[in-house]
Specification:
Blueprint: H1 11-14, H2 16-21, H3 28-35, H4 68-75, H5 79-96, H6 107-110
Helix pairs in contact: 4-5
Length: about 110
């Protein structure tokens, strides 16, 4: 697999304000990246760069915190392990939000 199999549910982007408000719950390197996040949040707490279809309007130039592969390099985490961890986090968000199961990340595809 050459990239993380994001299903574009948009939940990570929809919860940006929550992440920014809870910086202390993250490792220091992630706190620093979140503090430097270059985009605004919408009144609903989502990232202002999130499109209605769940895609990112600045995807090709997205911040490091939004790039799973670059985050893995920064945190020195093996790509298969990083994809597995992110897939599990994504699926927890998806299940907690009661989204359509079509958005679940297939962990076997992510490793």
């Amino acid at each position: 697999m050459s990239h993380f199999p994001c299903t574009q549910c948009g939940l990570c982007c929809k919860q940006l304000k929550s992440s920014l408000d809870n910086l202390n719950s993250f490792p220091l390197v992630i706190q620093d990246l979140l503090k430097r996040f270059p985009h605004q949040t919408n009144p609903d707490g989502s990232c202002s760069m999130l499109n209605d279809d769940g895609s990112c309007s600045v995807y090709e130039n997205r911040p490091i915190i939004c790039n799973i592969d670059l985050m893995g390099q920064l945190l020195h985490i093996d790509t298969p392990e990083l994809y597995r961890m992110n897939a599990e986090s994504c699926n927890t968000l998806i299940n907690n939000a009661n989204l359509n199961p079509k958005y679940l990340v297939q962990i076997s595809e992510a490793i």
